[in-house]
Amino acid sequence: MNGLPDTPYARFGFKSIFEAHIQENTALDELDAPPIKIVNNIDDDPCPDPTFVYTNKIIYGEGVSPPDLDALQGCDCEGPCDPNSKTCTCIHRQKQYSTNEVEGFVHNDKGILQSEVEPLVIVECNSACRCSIACQNRIIQRGRTVPITIKKTREKGWGSFARLSKYLVWTFVGLYAGELLTDEEAEERGIVYDKGPCTYLFDVDFYHIKHDANGVLVDDGKGHHSIDAYHYGNFTRFLNHSCSPNLTMHAAYINEVDVQKPLLVMYSSRKIDAGEELCFSYRGTDDERDTRKERERAGDQTCHCGSKNCRGYMFRGRDADEEDGE
Ligand SMILES: C[S@@+](CC[C@H](N)C(=O)[O-])C[C@H]1O[C@@H](n2cnc3c(N)ncnc32)[C@H](O)[C@@H]1O
Fold first, then answer.
1. Which H/E stretch holds residue 277?
2. In sequence order, what are the beta bridge partners of 60?
3. What is the pTM of this model?
4. Span 121-136, pLDDT tens digits
5. 60-83: per-residue pLDDT in tens?
6. What is the CATH number of domain 48-68+137-299?
7. Which ligand 1 atom is nearest residue 279's CA?
């Protein structure tokens, strides 16, 4: 038994137990999801370090209040909401954030995004609405549907990969789950993580949070949050950076009325073939440099994304951006 003690991990194998842990913790919130598989063709690690709890949930950190469900406004639509409805309050809330390209809901009746605006703000029907889970405006909350393999890479640690089928463009892939932290707590944790090889901290830092509807900066630097997927998280914590990404991160509101606390949701930004690694840009897109990005680390980190237009680094500290005038 490889010299390992006679524990369930040794008897059944770390990999199977880790896969079972994932299945057990997600069975109720992604009913249509194919099981997550773990593969390592690189070295002897049976699975990623299992010292984190696999979950699709948001855990509210110290000083961060959970959603105020009493403040939620629900729609009164009978049956599934009609995207052409003139009275659905969820359509009105979505309209606040929509460009002219999107009428009604951002997902079409196949659950695919109707717009490539980046980053998008998505407002789904919530627990105060009368419509059922089958409503066209409840895609994210139905959970992952795409097959995922968590696989060891040669130069970037573990990564998440598309499995079996082709992914359509603009499809919901997953929610960046983890602990929702105050800015102060995230700063403290960031100092510790910067000393290690990896960080799982992401700033909740979108353009619509900092600007009003006319594009005027209204940010007072207070009340910002970060998501930390170090202790709690799902397969999205293994999404590596690419300079030619196939995923985009958008902001979504379901049972949350506080604009500072959207969910971070991952969508495909192009067609993705079976076996492709799923990646997004930690730097954000080129034309939204002042919006969200992975919490800046103390210095540059060499990028091994391998794409033709790789910039050579993943993210840089504020000083480097200022030097570039970015
Ligand atoms: C959010 S984690 C991604 C999952 C990580 N690979 C793991 O094994 O847990 C971010 C870390 O992954 C590594 N990473 C992600 N993208 C990379 C890239 N393009 N080149 C090199 N390392 C990368 C870096 O160590 C980075 O701090």
1. strand 277-280
2. 180
3. 0.90
4. 999 999 999 999 999 9
5. 999 999 999 999 999 999 888 999
6. 2.170.270.10
7. 16
